[in-house]
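Morning run. Coffee first, then this:
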Amino acid sequence: MTDRAIRNLEHLRRSASTARVLNLLKVADEHGHTAEWAENPMFQTPGLNASLIIKHRLRRNETDSFAGRRQVATKVVLPIDATDLKTGGRFVFVNQIGFERVMLAAFGLPSDHADIRTLRLMDQLPSLDPFLLREQLRRGGVFAAPCYFAISEADLERMSAFVEKEIEPLVTLSMGGNAVSAGSTARMAGKILSNDPGDRLDALRATLRLEPEQYQEGIFCWKGFLYYKWCLNSLMSDIVGVADEVNTVKPYGPVDAGARDYINRGRGVLRTNIMKTCEKVSQTLRYYDDAYAGLTREGNPIAFRDFLLEAPNLFSRLGDQLGAIQHIVSFWRFRFDPKAAPVTADELIDIFMDFETGLMGRDFDDMARELMA
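And here it is:
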């Protein structure tokens, strides 16, 4: 385990995005007294179950930590002092060179331990959004408690206005066509977005005709689609800008004929795939819009309820798609910041290849058709 301190952990805890950071220390602080946290932990090892797990953009001096080339790694951060995050922490990258040796020395975990498998499941993901993460872990046989799959407070604040606008038709329906106040919409939005699984809204449950045991799952799935819609909406202006910059970016230094040919070909292919991926996400989200319109315009709560309860079938692919887009925007802005070092032809080719790999094999028309059949 490296002794290098991690800076700004306190800032990270306050402002981190849901897709980038899984704050298990906060989960332990808020739910460590509950039976669900104790009985269904994400990790069996106490230190790991109170860590911060981060999707980290690798700096050039960090790429040698891995046997293969990659742009993003999964960083596990152990705070030095859990009560004072300003003191920093120690970290390890999942699947870095010597990872198994480090985990054995630090935690006594053999290579086949369940916690090692869980970390590797996380490392396979493009982001840590809770809807994608839950489905990935479930497929891997890890059934962690619901308290682990919350949207960050920072993202909840950023989402609130968007969600209020989205649910206004439902509030109008619930009030029988009476004038809708901003306060009533905000209260219902708060109930839907609440990270407290015990925070029930009987009127909403009755509208959706959900049994008490179905309510938590239904609201979790509804929150998932609202989160994905908000993410796409927030990313669109940035992703269009990045796609345009892909067409014009020029590498620094000499460029041989082979590299020039690859870069010229890669520009068009990458830009097309970026925009195609955005359209595929939009297309799947339209299934949600249609089901929601059936509830608010046609008064059909059963179809919307059934859609929500079947929705996890789409979370993995939606999360993969949006995770790839988020990575492209985030890494491009990081690497092509005006203050960053110039990008050579070889590095630009690596970036293009990484982006193309992230966007490959993510056509889910068949999955969507199966769900809607």
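The chain has 15 helices and four strands. Good start to the day.
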